Amino acid sequence: MSSSLMKDFLRTTGGTAVIDGGLATELERKGADLNDPLWSAKCLLSSPHLIREVHLDYLENGADIIITASYQATIQGFKAKGLSDKESEDLIRKSVEIAREARDVYYERCAACSSGIDADGRIFKKRPILVAGSVGSYGAYLADGSEYSGDYGDAITLKCLKDFHRRRVQILADSGADLLAFETVPNKLEAKAYSELLKEEDISIPAWFCFNSKDGINVVSGDSLEECISIAESCSKVVAVGINCTPPRFIHDLIVSVKQVTTKPIVIYPNSGETYDGIQKQWVKNTGVTDEDFVSYVNNWIESGASLVGGCCRTTPATIKGIYTTLSVSRSVNLAEDSEASDQKILQENVR
Q1: β 282-283/207-211 pair status
Q2: Using CA of residue 265, residue 271, residue 275, residue 278, what is the dihedral sign?
Q3: C-alpha angle with apex 138: 132 to 143, nearest 5 degrees?
Q4: In the chain, which ranges are continuous DSSP H helix?
Q5: Fewest C-beta atoms under 10 Å: which of 18, 27, 77, 159?
Q6: Residue 345: its pLDDT value, please?
Q7: Which residues pair with 269 in a beta bridge?
Q8: Is 122 in contact with 61 (CB distance < 8 Å)?
């Protein structure tokens, strides 16, 4: 495992990188019915072509990192649908295969577009692209909203969580993903389980940990954000830490808190700020921010210390295009400065 993967990657992208946006919303927009405990992972069974289309939409709007459709893909969840262990494991592998296929198709389209941008404004710029294997929390598997409370009850121990996640983490790590994305981590116990798993199984690819918050201070369980980040900071296999699926208005202060505890690159991909009605199983209209308002935060997040920025629930390819456009100027300047510094170094070495 290359512990320097993320820093090396950011060096090639000009110091910042763009993560993709919401998956489920886009799948539904394309006609998928996700009213199911498997949520977006249902499409691994029913319509994998739609997942590939969404990955391509994000790449063509500037994403440098695409996250697999495995957030709610668990062996336990698939077996509850009547699948065998092998069938369940194959579907988890398939989530990585689909993302890698999308990247390959995207590179083919880049080669066919000499201008780097087409008449519809889609971006076809050949660049390093990472595939992040998504690992959702135990609460995501339960599909009862506990991923947003972190309350699993006293019966769920550290050992239970490690046993639950172990095989899925192994499969994703061995399926060709570039890194693992532990997302929407709701409590300190699960962060510790992930950290210990990475070490115990000697997982061969790096990872990031992203927590969620509903008050802008702590993670959703009420556990200290700083203590949670410290767990990630102390794990050598974790190469970035941050926040996801949290309203944009909280992100600045959370970045400040994260920065006090970590030396690793900071990852930020908030949701749209909309409220989810768990009883009606739908998003409450007019409770979030527009794409324009979301994107207006981006420079502030970068100035505060974030290096990787994208979107989570209810953000769209248009959101990601806005982030890409916002970051393009600073990235170009940083790349030019790096190139000049490299030229100066070569010149000095030649003089010597």
Answers
A1: unpaired
A2: negative
A3: 100
A4: 5-12, 24-29, 42-46, 48-59, 75-79, 85-112, 138-142, 158-173, 188-200, 225-233, 251-259, 291-296, 298-304, 317-351
A5: 159
A6: 52
A7: 244
A8: yes
Indicate if the pLDDT at residue 132 is higher than 70. yes
Would residue 58 be called left, alpha or beta, if left means φ above 0 and alpha means ψ between -120 and 50 degrees? alpha
Main-chain phi, psi angles of 2, to 5 degrees: -95, 110
Q: Residue 181's Cα: distance from chain center in Å? A: 6
Q: Degrees (nearest 5) of the Cα angle 141, 145, 147?
A: 65
Whole-number average pLDDT of the chain: 93
| pLDDT for residue 342 | 53
Task: State the virtual CA torsion across 329, 332, 336, 342 in degrees, nearest 10.
Answer: 130
87-124 residue pLDDT tens = 999 999 999 999 999 999 999 999 999 999 999 999 99
Dihedral sign, CA of 121, 127, 133, 137? negative
Q: How many residues does the chain have?
A: 352
Angle at which helices 85-112 and 48-59 cross, to 10° = 40
- 263 class by beta-carbon count within 10 Å (0-12 exposed, 13-18 middle, 19+ buried): exposed
Cα Rg, the chain, nearest whole Å: 20
Lookup: tokens for 27: 């799948």
**Residue 243, amino acid:** I
Q: Can you tell me the distance from the alpha carbon of 144 to that of 186, in angstroms, rounded to the nearest whole number?
A: 13
**Single-letter amino acid, residue 21:** G
Cα angle: 219, vertex 225, 226; to 5 degrees: 175
Name the band, by pLDDT with cuts 50, 70 and 90, for residue 333.
confident
Mean pLDDT confidence for 300-306: 98
The mean per-residue pLDDT over the stretch 175-179 comes to 98
Give the pLDDT confidence score for residue 183 in this predicted structure: 98
Which residues have a Cβ under 8 Å from the Cβ of 57 and sit 6 or more positions away?
Answer: 26, 317
Strand, coil or helix: 228? helix
Q: How far apart are CA 155 and CA 132, in angstroms?
A: 31
